[in-house]
Amino acid sequence: MTADGVQSSGPGLYPGASRSGRSLWLVALIALLAILCVLSVAVGTRAVAWPDIVAALGGQVDSIGQAAVAVRIPRTLLAVLAGAALGLAGAIMQGVTRNPLADPGILGVNMGASLAVVIGVAWFNIASAQAYIWVAVLGAGASAVFVYTIGSLGRGGATPLKLALAGAATSIAFSSLVIAVVLPRSDIAGGIRSWQIGGVGGATFERIGHVLPFLAVGFAISLLSARKLNSLALGDDLAAGLGERVAVARAVAALGAILLAGATTAICGPIGFVGLVVPHFCRLLAGVDHRWLLPFSALGGACLLTAADVLGRVIARPGELDVGIVTALVGAPFFIWIVRHQRVRDL
């Protein structure tokens, strides 16, 4: 173990986990994200010439093509922010629970935020963007507390396997409750069903501006929790012996993930599997040190969601597939692979 509480890893176990290797991979991820952003602006259901793209980036909307590009710009920004938030939230949750299956979707956090928003719309007629975000964050937090409480019952406390099972059961239950709340309300059913698929279409700079403060606070709390997560990775007893206040460290890190997942769900709907897939991939590049893993997960999540959005526009022309569908197609097989390759006693 190193002084920062991270298990040393040789190049055979974590390829590219040396400092120079991680730096190169970080630059590569940034370059990949830049390329994907260009593709996201340039590619869509309507073909647009490069002169129109350049003109639209300069603020002109004199033609249909330029107007189409002007719509894609905030959509691309939202995909980057939402993907980074979900990737980072997934890495935090896996670190807090020491569970390779942890993810805002699998642990019920996204669905808790979704249920809270649906109840707010159906029963309390909330309409403002700020109200959506606050309700979603509170719902995500309440769901996280509920899942952790259920997973802590019985012998052994909150084991990773019990947390995963509690989260899966909670997600299913909350999903059923969403349907029960929406069914009698035909006036909102169509909009709610579309939002629940999860997507970044219809993004505007105004909507992004509403959610940006919540994401900024979530990003700050999460990234500042990196050293504490390194300590928690050693186990609660050893972390406490090193002077770490385990409960406080876990709660603060979880708060950052809840803010990120709740705010993203409020504006995009419940998008699954990004927080599951990305941290596993990033560990192959950055190793297990959360000081590197968290930034890598944010960049990886941004790349994945932006790529999923571009892919959804290309494969379904002249229509499009929402990113929630594309990430599910990618994430579901990956989830099955993790379960098959992870021994139950290690969960």
UniProtKB/TrEMBL annotation:
Q: Which domain of life is it from?
A: Bacteria
The GO terms this record gives for MF are: transmembrane transporter activity
Q: Which InterPro entries match?
A: ABC_BtuC-like, ABC_transptr_permease_BtuC
Give the main localization category. membrane
- Supply one GO BP term: siderophore-iron import into cell
Chain ranges passing through the membrane: 24-43, 76-93, 105-126, 132-151, 163-183, 247-272, 292-311, 323-340
Any one annotated GO CC term: plasma membrane
Keywords on record: Cell membrane, Membrane, Transmembrane, Transmembrane helix, Transport
Q: Where in the cell is it found?
A: Cell membrane
- What topology in the membrane does the UniProt record assign? Multi-pass membrane protein
Q: Which family does it belong to?
A: Belongs to the binding-protein-dependent transport system permease family. FecCD subfamily.
Protein name per Swiss-Prot or TrEMBL: Iron ABC transporter permease
Species source reads Pseudorhizobium pelagicum
The organism's lineage is: Bacteria, Pseudomonadati, Pseudomonadota, Alphaproteobacteria, Hyphomicrobiales
